[in-house]
């Protein structure tokens, strides 16, 4: 099992009373085969992780608000979740820097033995498929030769249903650019095995319990996860019971250096998933972990969101920090299928190297999204839940007339049976409409609008959700070609899930903007009341002891046939 770990040390003093340990001295982490058979076999240059004393303390400050020493005066290196990856044995070594190329060993920690560290399922998360009687479970382990399995059923002590799944992984060679391609600490690290198992023939709106694990072929032993539960999807019908789901973008984790915003969002989503009337899913539309080539961030982020993702489906889509690259794609390497080496690069765009060379590979491999004819994995897809049809598209890919994404989107919109699915919600990372002063992002939004805004009106899309800007913004209802109440959707930006927030109060006054909130982390809560009324709330996030956490900072009713609808701003 993973948990918080603190590695502490004392600086000590020499005969002159000067501290032996300096900020540029180094702590190295060795795990499994890096440890060797005897101390003499350890190669100082082959290790899992490393930090100078100064870097270790800085990491602690990111997680613990500046507390980098304990009451005994020892310096500390904090790990919110350890082991970082899938290992059975690890040890820390403390080295004195004698010169740029010379080090000497000062101390070793005790050997850390992690029970089932290689075989224990981690990063468990659910996802919808294109069928309402199915649910997908994904999880990770170390490299085990075996079959991923699931046991499930409607009674916790009688998991009588079984299914087998498949496994995959990826290597540094699958990445497009540096730093993601570099096999060294702080950059590429093996992700272990990524497993996917599907549960089928589920009864509607029923609580199911499940366990996942991998049956080890050599010893015929399975290390099972804890038993988790979820509520299966309801039947598709216009008069479905009211239900809620959470929406946001731009999260990351505390290791990104932005504070605790992402962790607060995950904790509040976990609470909402465990309410007597729980949320039914969480939608994250891009800029997910902000790993940007630092592979261990994916592990940290997945462990952070797993407490709610084991219970409600986590539906993700692509952002610039997952996909954008300038080299290394093509020749089948780009998981979205773009044949050029640099992905999508229109002359009017600002699509650069924001993924740190990942080019969508970790995202596409970690998340199994619903499949239909013409869909493209995590890049563009759709699914139905109750009386809502949700569409996820990629702002990082071509959506011009004749493109694969455009053709799929138009056919998908045409196919929606509005007598059963009165609501259509479209999600993408970059917003169509926004009040940011930066002209480049504004141009990107306008160019996307030029390509597909007519589809949003023609097929009566009700709500468009986006992120990218680290703030909250809501448009008027019925927005089309810059005019309100003319049959277009409501546009809402929720880029407030943990990444560094925008605080600039100088926001231009634009007639179609109804509400802007800056300087607060938060998420959207969508409640579908019935076939004609939908309620959106922007909820402020914060620590457990923050009395303002949970405050609704803005809300709006979207009511079909009433134009602006019933609006109440917080």
Structural class: alpha+beta
**Level-2 CATH architecture of the largest domain:** 4-Layer Sandwich
Multimeric state: single chain
Average pLDDT works out at 89
Secondary-structure topology with pairs:
Layout: E1 3-9, E2 26-31, E3 49-52, H1 53-64, E4 75-82, E5 89-99, E6 102-108, E7 112-113, E8 122-127, E9 135-141, E10 146-153, E11 161-164, E12 166-168, E13 193-199, E14 207-216, E15 221-224, E16 228-231, E17 243-248, H2 261-273, E18 282-285, H3 296-309, E19 314-317, H4 320-323, H5 361-366, E20 381-385, E21 388-392, H6 404-415, E22 423-427, H7 439-458, E23 463-466, E24 472-475, E25 478-480, E26 483-488, E27 490-494, E28 513-517, E29 522-528, E30 533-540, E31 552-559, E32 567-568
Parallel strand pairs: 17-18, 18-19, 21-22, 22-23, 23-27
Antiparallel strand pairs: 1-4, 2-3, 2-5, 5-6, 5-7, 8-9, 9-13, 10-11, 10-14, 12-13, 14-15, 14-16, 17-29, 20-21, 24-27, 24-28, 25-26, 29-30, 30-31, 31-32
Helix pairs in contact: 2-3
Catalytic activity: a phosphate monoester + H2O = an alcohol + phosphate
Protein name: Purple acid phosphatase
Subcellular location: Secreted
Detailed description of the structure:
With 570 residues, this protein is α+β, with helices and mostly antiparallel strands. It has three domains: 3-113, no CATH class; 122-229, Immunoglobulin-like, CATH 2.60.40; 238-568, Purple Acid Phosphatase, chain A, domain 2, CATH 3.60.21.10. The chain contains seven helices and 32 strands. The chain has helices at 53-64, 261-273, 296-309, 320-323, 361-366, 404-415, 439-458, and strands at residues 3-9, 26-31, 49-52, 75-82, 89-99, 102-108, 112-113, 122-127, 135-141, 146-153, 161-164, 166-168, 193-199, 207-216, 221-224, 228-231, 243-248, 282-285, 314-317, 381-385, 388-392, 423-427, 463-466, 472-475, 478-480, 483-488, 490-494, 513-517, 522-528, 533-540, 552-559, 567-568. The strands form seven sheets. A seven-stranded mixed β-sheet has the order 19-18-17-29-30-31-32. A seven-stranded mixed β-sheet has the order 20-21-22-23-27-24-28, with no helix packed on it. Strand 8 and strand 9 form a beta hairpin. Helix 2 (261-273) packs parallel to helix 3. It starts with a strand and ends with a strand. The model is unreliable at 38-42, 66-73 and 564-570 (pLDDT under 50).
